[in-house]
Amino acid sequence: xxxxxxxxxxxxxxxxxxxxxxxxxxxxxxxxxxxxxxxxxxxxxxxxxxxxxxxxxxxxxxxxxxxxxxxxxxxxxxxxxxxxxxxxxxxxxxxxxxxxxxxxxxxxxxxxxxxxxxxxxxxxxxxxxxxxxxxxxxxxxxxxxxxxxxxxxxxxxxxxxxxxxxxxxxxxxxxxxxxxxxxxxxxxxxxxxxxxxxxxxxxxxxxxxxxxxxxxxxxxxxxxxxxxxxxxxxxxxxxxxxxxxxxxxxxxxxxxxxxxxxxxxxxxxxxxxxxxxxxxxxxxxxxxxxxxxxxxxxxxxxxxxxxxxxxxxxxxxxxxx
Length: 321
Ligand code: A3P
Description:
Elements: H1 10-18, E1 21-23, E2 29-33, E3 36-38, H2 40-52, E4 60-64, H3 70-81, H4 100-103, H5 112-115, E5 128-131, H6 140-143, E6 150-155, H7 158-171, H8 181-190, H9 198-211, E7 216-220, H10 221-226, H11 228-238, H12 245-249, H13 252-259, H14 262-265, H15 269-273, E8 275-277, E9 280-281, H16 300-314
Parallel strand pairs: 4-5, 4-6, 6-7
Antiparallel strand pairs: 1-2, 2-3, 8-9
Bound molecules: adenosine-3'-5'-diphosphate (A3P).
């Protein structure tokens, strides 16, 4: 994923050498492009999308900052949209045989020739993608047609997001040596994380969700944990696929929540053993799945500093995390 020996084409190498560069917490280096930090493979994917991606009517994009519950949301959305073709209680449900990343791919990790082969909804005119790309860096083809595409943005408490990322960085075998909590913290606070600064990425989608509530749904990891039924119904309504009375009475909402719960997903073989891409195993996308785990990792000063940055960045926006 971050092999310094990977050869890119000359145009991309020239671009990289013209960009600000910083050591980062997961991969070796990140480059600042249009205000956000990317590893070279991620940046290559972003540029590919910007140049070549053509959205279809009804495409759905799950957008997150890394470690905000992307995998969970992929499962939920997939199960929700495919509930007729794949009832959540069937023994052969795709989520019991495939990792969420195989059912809902990351847009920026696909090559342009793969965009069109994504086929993960009952409606051929609708595809589900996940992405970490900030709204300003999304392909213009998507933002220009937000009237047709829909975005589900999932955010997470910043302190939990950082702690999850820190553990992930050390689980993934991408750096020459483990990263210390202090170094990881400093990078994160400077905004040097994938598609970071995380605050700017969240804020961009928050503003978009306020401007276009029918097109951008802003969700929170913590609310999904506390009131999953309410949030799942909210999601279904937003996508124009509300649960019918019959579905409600049959317990379908609970069944989807249960299929996608941390407990169920971590029992699925492929999520325990499979490989995501070099350096990342599927299991590295599951750790504790809790709210407030930052208390077990951050010092009081670190927590206060993240709170302070969050407060400053979001002041006046109406967004609280
Ligand atoms: P923790 O490291 O705090 O446990 P992402 O999918 O964006 O990479 O996010 C990973 C985080 O989401 C990890 O958080 C992971 O444990 C958690 N997660 C994964 N699946 C989940 C699920 N089904 N329910 C709740 N949290 C989940």
